[in-house]
Specification:
The protein has twelve helices and five strands. By secondary structure, it is an alpha/beta fold. β2, α5 and β3 form a beta-alpha-beta unit. Bound molecules: adenosine-5'-triphosphate (ATP).
């Protein structure tokens, strides 16, 4: 999606303060992670393990970042996959990939001597879409395998596995996925408000020489509706303009031009897919 460029530069472990805005989502996620952080207490109180957290919201808002930060926060190994990787022509291949994914998480945790593992599945709707009546869909088996793996997670199994899934089409999901003991914790990751946009801009401006007169607050004001991924692009494009202009710093005019560029880019993307 829009965030591909930014994604490749991220380290695989990052902390919550590298995520701008999203204060409510971050708080809800940290609270949900308590069961991993406070394992003793959780056990004593007889709380059943939380197995699945569903992150919902538009593309490029930081869902992947949240999953990585969750892994870091809970001292877990992190493994990621995307729903589309499980779609295969041959029946059973998707299911066997799910098995492999969980196996990988266990092996990695053992190797790194960690008690917890976070498995992140982006685009969960691709495998977890509503099953329409009796119609057999080729990836029913994949979804069933995921449910089986989740049902197999118990308080005493090591590593403790937490699955974080993301979708921007929550209403498409099969209710079986949302039942208690599965993805029963939902966190909305929304487009950032002005304050959120400013904090995202500040994070991505850290490694860029901004002109003294550059005003990120104004940029935050003028980027209503932009996702975090788009804001990252604005700074990157602005830096490219600065390079072309043989400037040593990124100036306000570069940032303003970059806003237009990113907005136009979105438009041509959309036209291309129509
Ligand atoms: P998708 O649904 O397209 O996979 P996503 O919600 O998982 O999107 P991320 O992959 O987490 O989005 O974000 C893409 C990139 O956008 C990040 O690598 C980062 O550079 C930037 N970004 C997005 N949201 C934020 C944020 N809240 N704070 C800082 N950077 C962000």
């Amino acid at each position: 999606g829009a965030g591909t460029r930014g994604k490749s530069r991220q380290p695989s472990y990052l902390s919550f303060d590298q995520i701008g805005g999203q204060e409510r989502a971050k708080k809800e996620l940290v609270e949900a992670l308590d069961f991993l952080v406070k394992q003793e207490e959780t056990k004593k109180l007889g709380i059943r393990p939380l197995k699945g957290i569903l992150l919902t919201g538009p593309p490029g808002t930081g869902k992947t970042l949240m999953a990585k930060a969750a892994a870091h926060h809970t001292n877990s190994v992190y493994i990621a996959a995307s729903g589309s990787e499980f779609v295969e022509m041959y029946v059973g291949v998707g299911a066997s990939r799910i098995r492999t994914l969980f196996q990988e998480a266990r092996t990695k945790a053992q190797k790194e001597n960690k008690e917890n593992a976070v498995i992140f599945i982006d685009e969960i709707d691709v495998i977890g879409g509503k099953r329409d009546g009796g119609q057999q869909r080729e990836y029913d088996q994949t979804l069933n395998q995921l449910l089986t793996e989740m049902d197999g997670i118990h308080t005493n199994t090591t590593p403790r596995i937490l699955i974080i899934a993301a979708t921007n089409r929550k209403e498409m999901l099969d209710p079986a996925l949302l039942r208690p003991g599965r993805f029963d914790r939902h966190i909305d990751v929304e487009l950032p408000d002005k304050k959120g946009r400013l904090s995202i801009l500040n994070i991505h401006a850290q490694n860029k020489p901004l002109d003294e007169a550059a005003d990120l607050e104004k940029i935050a004001e003028q980027t209503f509706g932009f996702s975090g991924a788009q804001l990252e692009s604005v700074l990157n494009e602005a830096a490219i303009y600065a390079l072309r202009g043989q400037q040593e710093t990124v100036m306000q005019k570069d940032l303003l031009a970059a806003i237009d560029k990113v907005m136009m880019g979105e438009q041509t993307d959309r036209e291309a897919t129509q």
